[in-house]
Amino acid sequence: MQIYKVVEIGTVTEDVIEETLNSWCSKGWNFDGMQFAMRESSKRPSMVFVLFTRDTKDGEEQ
Q: Which domain holds residue 28?
């Protein structure tokens, strides 16, 4: 069974994204993708959602 984790990042900088990726991947999660949320008034993203997946066996703790 595959489970998903979504991590919301409100401070969109290279350092924070890198720290988030390294932190969750070291806990056994696999990076699946990233979705940026933009504001019309700015060219920089206002937040990012980082998606992770992990395979588990039936009944295993998440």
A: 13-34+51-57
Q: What CA–CA distance (Å, rounded) separates 11 from 42?
A: 14
Sign of CA dihedral 13, 16, 19, 23: negative
Residue 21 located in a structural domain? yes
Instruction: Calculate the alpha carbon distances from 5 to 24, 40, 43, 45, 60 in Å.
Output: 9, 27, 27, 21, 16
Number of domains in the chain: 1
* pLDDT tens-digit readout, 1-29: 999 999 999 999 999 999 999 999 999 99
Q: Which residue has the tokens 């937040």?
A: 47
pLDDT at 60 over 90: no
What does pTM read for this prediction?
0.84
Residues 48 and 31: their CA atoms lie apart, in Å, by: 14
